[in-house]
Input
Amino acid sequence: MTILETPRLEIREFSEKDSDELALILGDPKVMEYSLKGPLSREEALKQLRQRILQHYVDRGYGLWALISKETKKLIGMAGPIVQTVDGEECVEIGYRIASSEWGKGYATEAVAAIRDYVFSRFSMDKLIAIIDPNNTQSIRVAEKTGFKLAKMTTFFDFDVGIYEIRRFS
Ligand SMILES: CC(C)(COP(=O)(O)OP(=O)(O)OC[C@H]1O[C@@H](n2cnc3c(N)ncnc32)[C@H](O)[C@@H]1OP(=O)(O)O)[C@@H](O)C(=O)NCCC(=O)NCCS
Output
């Protein structure tokens, strides 16, 4: 199911057919440097696809979506709203990862800006957050370029992180 389009991307729901391409991205140590668990094996990637992505669509009606290059038709990353608990509060985070071969081409910024607008227009959330390791400069740039501001520092699963947020009417 297509969620939305940007000039260069089709943003659609994942399906099990994406598992091989997704496993390549989630198995890349560069892409997973700041993730909680590091690079995933093929089996772990499939488990994440089923339990954290496809099940999230069932539970919430949204989740991490596939970013497909309109030019090559290939999966170049993932981005979308996911529910997280931060300091005891349920929040909706926009998560994003791009295949390392495609970094620096503006894809994350393009996807996050479109998803931010889509989520605020379609769902009742008043705030979106991004949970970012303070050393992850690229991710901080993406958050800032799409209007997120640092709200606080905290710990998330024992990692020090910055909580960036954007409100509906900002
Ligand atoms: C973070 C990530 C999604 C960015 O994707 P991307 O498509 O390369 O992002 P964009 O091209 O839209 O923007 C990247 C910005 O970071 C900057 N950047 C790139 N490499 C950088 C580096 N090593 N140090 C500092 N800034 C850097 C770019 O110049 C650009 O900013 P600019 O437009 O002001 O020049 C990608 O690097 C990634 O998937 N990282 C691993 C997963 C991850 O960390 N996800 C976020 C978790 S919070």
Summary: The beta strands are 2-5, 9-12, 65-69, 75-86, 89-98, 127-132, 149-156, 159-167. The chain has a mean pLDDT of 97.
